[in-house]
Each structure stands twice: as structure tokens, then as C-alpha cells.
Amino acid sequence: MSQPRLTERPLLTRARIGVLMGGQSAEREVSLRTGTAVHRSLVRRGYDAVAIDVGPALSQDLRDQKVAVAFLALHGPGGEDGAIQGFLETVGIPYTGSGIQASAVGMHKVTTKTLLALAGIPVPGGTVVKRGTKVSSATLLRTAKLRWPVVVKPASQGSTIGVTIVRKPAQWCDALALAHRYDTDAMVEAYIPGHEVTVSIIGRQALSPLVLPAVEIVAPGGFYDFAAKYEKGKTQYLCPAPLTAAVTKQIRALALRTYEVLGCEGAARVDFRITPKGRPFVLEINTAPGMTETSLLPMAAGRAKIDYDELTERILESALARAARVNQSSEEAPKP
What we know:
The chain has eleven helices and 13 strands. The protein is α+β, with helices and mostly antiparallel strands. The chain is globular and about 60 Å long.
């Protein structure tokens, strides 16, 4: 005997949903946690959902499982950089979140900063060091007009993987080597003292995107690293962030503007550093935010009275909107 659904709410789709998770990036374990939570949520909601660990046999897995819609729970290169998005468009499977271009731009922090700066959005000053380039810290700081401390990080990674706050010349070479382990481009940018705050956004069909309450992150030692993000009890989260009304309004507007400049869809999260005087800088955007039990997007949504299952369903809407656009384009295409 089948179990009754926990909700009588009509389903958005009866098509089979494949929750794509895992992959081969350095964020594989986090992705598996995100995907498992999303899959359970969709099943609770009454959807026909299957969990798929992304690997070389993905194409065959999608066919075998008869997947019609993809819910992307992948993080890192290959999952949120436009690669999987391009593959899914090629095989005609609609997917959640941002498209190819916004995903690729959002994943590459250098490109993101360039576009945001052109749009007048404040970002930290900095430069890029290519793998194999020999440059002393003194030379780089002088030419880039930076001073200690600086942040060194891979251009295309998430979860603070490969990131070092460099406070003195003795740390310079090791920090570059670590960043270059994950990417050919190492970003070197000004360290912004102050508060770490994030603002999540959910796209809505035919409506302006919904900006969720800001979350302030108070990490041990002041550095929100991988352990601080994913180990319970390591970090304190303040939601809504205890900021002035003026700063709150400003970062909400900057987060929305960032989302729009990059052409994002579905859910995204914009990370800020805010100086003690209240001046915000956009650090990066995450176009595939985590959905684990300690993730910031579900936390902010909960504050806005959107529970985890409703949030999952709202993200699913972005895939169905993409499918509707494709169908409309096909119908409007001239017949031969």
C-alpha cells in the first residue's frame, strides 16, 4: 500500500526528477549531502525523484532512469560552471538554477569581479597570478596597490577551498601554491576587515526575485573556512544580520543587482564583507548554493517563513520555467 503524501498541494510536475549530485570536484562530499537532502525533500513533497551520483555514465543513467527534469545539487567545477548545464541543454533536459553563461561567469571569480566593477558594484581591489608565474609579494603588492593582509584564492572554486589569508611575506609562496593546486589563476585581493554577510535570492516566474534576510557569519578566528562552514557548532549565524537599516537596504539592493547583472535564475547567494564603518564589498556569487543542514540558503529562507520543502519546490520552478521557454521557442520557430 502506497504511503500518502504529506501535503495535498498540487505537484508542479509529474515528470521524473533526477537529483544530480556528487561529481568529481573537491566539493563532492558537500554535494552528496546537498543532493541527499534535496532528494528526500522532493520525495516528501510527493514527487517522482531519483538520486543520481554524477560520473562518466551520466548519459546512460539519465536514460535508464527516464529522467525528464534535472535538479542540480552539484558544487564546484563541472557542476556549477556551465559544464553540466551545457550537457543537459544538449540532451534536452531542463535543469534548475542559472544557465550556461551565468553559471560560467559566476564560478570564475575574476570574471565576476570584472563585470560587477563595470556595473558600479563595489568589489575588493586585486589582481591575478597565473600558475608558473614567479612574482615576489613585494612586487605584486606594489603594482596592484595592495597592502598586507591579502586574500589568495583559486579563481574557480567554492567552499573556501584553497583560500589563505596572507598576513606576511613568509606565507606568500605556500598560499600561491595552494591556490594553484586548484586553478591556473590565483586571485590576490585586498582583505576587507569587518563583518562577513551573505544575502540569498530566489527567482520567481513573472515576479521580481525574492531577496531573503541577510545572514551574518561569525566564524571562529574570523575565517569562514571549510570546517567552519560544514561542521556543526563551529560557527555562529545571526539571521537577520544585526546591521543598520541603511546597510541592510544597501546590501539587499547590491545582491539583487549582482544577480541581475550576471543573468542568474533560480536560487543564488551573494557574499559580502562589510567594513566596521558599514561599507559593503561583494566578494562573489554562488549560483548553486548549498542545501545541507548547515547551509545558509535554507537558514535565510526559514527566517522568511519558507520551510525546506517549500524552498526545494521553489527552486524546482526554475527548471520548469526553462522547459516552458524551450517549448515556446519550438512552437514559434518557422516551419520548413
